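FAQ: What does a multi-protein file look like?

Like this. Sequence, then tokens, then the next protein.
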Amino acid sequence: MSNLRRNPRALYLAMVPGLVLAGMFTFYPILAAGYYALYDWSGFNSPRIFVGLDNFTRLLSDPFFWGAFKRSLIFLLGTVPLQMFISLWLAVLLNNQMLKLSNVFRTLIFLPVVTPVAVIGIVWTFLLSPFNGPINGLLLDLGLVTRPIDFLGSSSTVMPSLVMVYVWKWLGLTMIYWLAALQTVPDDVYEAAKLDNCKGGRLLLLIVFPIIRPFALVIFLISAVGALNVFPLIMSMTNGGPFFSSEVIEIFIYRSAFATAEGTRTQLGYAAAAGVLFGLLIMMLTLLQAFISRHSGKSR
């Protein structure tokens, strides 16, 4: 490390491989999407016809785009509050060092985070199956239902089912964020609260939460960005169905690019325009998260 400080040129050279990879797989695709969004192009060797902002104009009048946008917001509003509330409750429970096997419980809750999304999708598709799924079998045995529920095949149950699976998948990661925030609360605060006989929910709401509130805003934005990037889970479980009931923005972009309603003709330019708008939404949330993180850091 000392040699690198004496020779800044070596430090810059060490950054070159990372910058090259970032340019190839991050910056170039972003610029290419912005470029192709201005063209009517079906990909490969087909001619590119410059259409300017027509793709964006079509998007703003496309009911399928707005339907996907609405479902993305519904998914976000369904997952983020639930995920934050349950993970905070678990973090408070497992933050107690006197609790036996707390590390074991943390590991078990975090395990779905490191499990591949494709595996999660396959397993939960089987669990929720109306034919031989264990969940339907349990509901029938308990007498809670009289016939199997098609959780992923009905427009009224598919989104709640996906929300449940998504929250279960990422609950452990949000819990870790909360645990890190709770570690910043001084022990003196708990001692003073104990002397005032303040405990339980009052301790959390009146004393602990105001201290970790800056972290809560950051955790909320991280969870919101994550809830908008749900393509692998939905593709592996429903493929956007039934009848577009679970088609979010990412699925709409994929369908527009590779599985359009116009037969075999793809619409890569149109999909790129949708990707640009979706990327701008993600960027706004990311910049807001960075601003809040910087502001909360200065205030502390």
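And here is the next protein:
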Amino acid sequence: MPSLTARLLSHPQTPDAYKRATQSPFLQLAGQGRLPPTTLSQWLAQDRLYAQAYARFIGGLLSRVRLPVRSDRPIRETLEWRVVQVLKSSLDGILVELAFFEDTAAKYGLDLAAVVPAEKVVGSSGGGGGSGKEFGPNPTTAAYVDLFDSFGAGGNANKSVFEGLVLLWATEKVYHEAWTYARDQGQASQTKAEDDLDGGALRKEFIPNWTSAEFGAFVDEIEACLDQYAETHSGADVDETALRVWKEVLQLEQGFWPQV
């Protein structure tokens, strides 16, 4: 039987949503160096808010893992230990990412508090933070923040570690695939990164970071951990729960890329 993640990736209900989530016009322009710094700033400011909420999400998910008190093997060989290690890597990585955002933004003159015009926000009716007048999360970012915070101390106590692992894998998988698509668009371009509209911020800094072998290996480890967890905690609702989270992430990711 295929693994859980293989079943999700090949599910007949999601191929169109997956393509829209990972192959947007924004990503195409990003890979070709044709995003103006204003547009990049607006998106990056939202991604930074997402990353800050992600850090809280990982902390909340860690608090739900229970390492075994007794085990017939060393604790570092247990699945729970593997989950904690994955979450530790996630937290370490997002802290590095937040510092990377600030350093790169300063280097290229990008604004991490840029406001997105309401007409460029998918799902916006003209109001809400981050679109129009005041800086804050736009509707899609706010939905992500709420989803991440539902795993926190003041969130939904019924949210399971399994559900959180699906969410973690789905977000990282789609992010990696999306920027891999952007990178591939740039490889066909004849222009140099120094001539890009953003001065090379994306093609010299961000895209190499988000398509690196290290990031790919990190996503692969989350996937392997989730698949092992699903095998160990098999039940009638495993696929149903996973598919629900997968669909939600794909829907949010489609709205996360600005209209260009």
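Q: Is there any per-entry metadata?
A: Some entries carry free-text notes. For the entry above: The longest helix spans residues 79-108.
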